[in-house]
């Protein structure tokens, strides 16, 4: 065999009890598992790695990633590779870079500068979903990308392409065009469709429109991944809307960063879980992902009311410059509760600036906003490119939701900015170290199942997500006694500890705790 991992504690991704074994790898696949103490033969190979004291698990699957451009610009990508992530799901929250035409590409680049940068360092030589996936495969001189990547068709981008930025229903012709774009994306390898229903222009779609698009997704065996219409006031109603919509469409549902935030939802996670359990018992196909932290992260401009964002970035800027309109925006934010801020009146003290597009504004990073006047000035000066941390979560909700049997892990990691959310660099070791080992919220076996086998099942990956003979050798070796997130809110780009080895297709991406030059990642297409 090419490699034998000797004497590891195998945590196989099923949730079953771990066991000691030698695991053999040949040509990028697991070719033998010999259990210690059960009469199994001792495996031999060209290389033998002593795994005494280490756990061996499948590679972690990040079900909610914002590495759409990071994988193209950064061959190292240790933010995810060092965590043991071997697969990321891109195209999240209804906004990404395919399918597009020239106009749509220019608009979406401006709209999500805060997530991914403005892309001035990227050659956008693709327009379709298939061309984007091909670009991932031939990145970095044809060597590939740091970790594997799957893609969701972004519904907001599709609406931008076919309808534009108007707050109105789609015409029959426009709806037909959107359905065609979704079908083409699925045929080209996307695993499903995402939405950002607190982001423009995706939020302008009504349930009938979304249901029609979900029917297309379902016909290809994909799933719908909505950032739904509210995580604050009306959160339960928003979850219920998504459950009903996908059941009507016959489409699998995966709820993105399924949190219950803001003061109105403190302690209300059991109500959400009851809603999901009732739907599951009735036959619904539902899963969800969360990150193991309380604050959220988004762009500052996303907090504005939807009417202020109609027409796209240039229209937003014009409204912010107009004093009378800016005062109406302030009133919606601070008094009424903007739909961009989940229907909750703004508490500016919860908003911390995590990144700016203009380096000249770096002094804002790490500061809490002191009111609308400062926020308005920053939005204009930074050309809508600022990112924020929003300190509105509740620990009891986080723990309750992560225990649920359809839960998976997703970092929602935004890699831009001087002070990004630590979830970008720490989600998976934080689950293993803090929530499994220190708090015992889940056992080690349960935690690994949530991060590997369960998301692989949602993605319909027939040869990933388990330590099993014949499966891809996407593997992580970690020390269950020391694994921990290094990233903190003060030092968010610190790499984790206790993860010495990560393999993708049997090749070492992390070896002895250091990033190698291996680029084993590829686009994972729906089959």
Largest sheet descriptor: 9 strands, mixed
Number of helices: 19
Rg, Cα atoms, Å? 22 Å
What is the CA-CA span between the terminal residues? 29 Å
| Mean of residue pLDDT values | 97
The residue ranges in which pLDDT falls below 50 over 5 or more consecutive positions are none
**Tally of DSSP β-strands:** 20
- Taken from the alpha-carbon principal axes, the silhouette is globular
What is the SS-derived class? alpha/beta
Percent of residues in helices comes to 25-40%
Proportion of residues in extended strands: 15-25%
Provide structural commentary.
By secondary structure, the protein is α/β, with parallel strands linked by helices. The protein is built from 19 helices and 20 strands. It has helices at residues 70-73, 78-81, 102-111, 113-116, 129-137, 139-142, 155-162, 172-187, 207-219, 235-249, 269-281, 306-309, 313-321, 323-336, 372-381, 395-402, 423-438, 444-451, 453-458; strands spanning 3-10, 19-26, 29-35, 47-50, 55-58, 60-62, 85-90, 148-154, 192-196, 223-227, 252-255, 286-290, 296-299, 351-355, 387-390, 407-409, 475-478, 501-504, 507-511, 514-515. Strands 1, 2, 3, 4, 5, 17, 18, 19 and 20 form a nine-stranded mixed beta sheet that branches. An eight-stranded parallel beta sheet has the order 6-7-8-9-10-11-12-16. Strands 13-15-14 form a three-stranded antiparallel beta sheet, with no helix packed on it. Helix 11 links the parallel strand 11 (252-255) and strand 12 (286-290). Helix 7 (155-162) packs across helix 8, helix 9 (207-219) packs across helix 10 (235-249) and helix 17 runs antiparallel to helix 18. The longest helix has 16 residues, at 172-187. The mean pLDDT is 97.
């Amino acid at each position: 065999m090419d490699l034998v991992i000797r004497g590891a504690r195998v945590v196989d991704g099923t949730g079953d009890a771990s066991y000691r074994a030698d695991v053999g790898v040949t040509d990028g696949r697991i070719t033998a598992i010999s259990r210690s103490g059960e009469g199994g033969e001792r495996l031999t190979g060209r290389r033998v790695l002593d795994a005494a004291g280490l756990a061996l698990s499948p590679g972690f699957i990040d079900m909610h990633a914002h590495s759409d451009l990071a994988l193209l610009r950064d061959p190292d990508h240790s933010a995810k590779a060092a965590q043991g992530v071997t697969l990321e799901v891109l195209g999240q929250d209804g906004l990404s870079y395919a399918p597009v035409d020239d106009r749509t590409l220019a608009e979406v680049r401006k709209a999500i500068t805060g997530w991914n940068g403005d892309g001035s360092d990227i050659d956008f030589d693709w327009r379709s979903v298939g061309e984007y996936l091909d670009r991932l495969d031939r990145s970095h001189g044809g060597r590939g990308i740091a970790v594997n990547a799957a893609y969701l068709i972004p519904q907001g981008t599709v609406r931008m392409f076919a309808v534009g930025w108007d707050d109105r229903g789609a015409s029959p012709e426009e709806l037909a065009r959107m359905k065609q774009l979704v079908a083409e994306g699925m045929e080209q390898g996307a695993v499903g469709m995402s939405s950002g229903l607190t982001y423009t222009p995706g939020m302008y779609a009504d349930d009938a429109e979304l249901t029609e698009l979900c029917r297309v997704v379902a016909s290809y065996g994909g799933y719908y991944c909505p950032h739904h219409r509210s995580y604050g006031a009306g959160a339960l109603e928003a979850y219920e809307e998504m459950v009903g919509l996908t059941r009507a469409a016959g489409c699998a549902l995966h709820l993105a960063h399924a949190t219950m935030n803001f003061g109105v939802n403190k302690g209300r996670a059991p109500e959400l879980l009851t809603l999901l359990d009732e739907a599951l018992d009735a036959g619904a196909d539902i899963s969800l992902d969360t990150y193991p932290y309380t604050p959220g992260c988004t762009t500052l401009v996303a907090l504005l009311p939807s009417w202020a964002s109609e027409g796209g970035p240039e229209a937003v800027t014009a409204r912010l410059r107009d004093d009378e309109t800016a005062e109406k925006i302030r009133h919606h934010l601070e008094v009424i509760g903007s739909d961009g801020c989940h229907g909750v009146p703004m508490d500016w003290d919860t908003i911390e600036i995590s990144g700016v597009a203009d380096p000249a504004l770096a002094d804002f990073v790490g500061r809490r906003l002191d009111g609308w006047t400062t926020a308005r000035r920053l939005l204009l000066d930074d050309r809508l490119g600022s990112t924020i941390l929003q300190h509105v979560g509740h620990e009891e909700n986080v723990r309750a939701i992560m225990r649920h049997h359809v839960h998976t892990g997703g970092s929602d990691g935004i890699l831009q900015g001087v002070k990004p959310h630590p979830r970008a660099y720490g989600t998976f070791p934080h689950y293993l170290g803090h929530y499994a080992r220190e708090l015992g919220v889940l056992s080690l076996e349960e935690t690994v199942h949530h991060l590997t086998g369960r998301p692989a099942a949602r993605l319909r990956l027939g040869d990933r997500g388990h330590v099993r003979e014949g499966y891809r050798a996407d593997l992580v070796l970690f020390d269950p006694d020391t694994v921990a997130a290094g990233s903190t809110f003060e030092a968010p780009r610190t790499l984790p500890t206790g993860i010495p080895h990560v393999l993708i297709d049997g090749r070492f991406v992390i070896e002895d705790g250091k990033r190698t030059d291996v680029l084993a990642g590829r686009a994972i297409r729906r089959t």
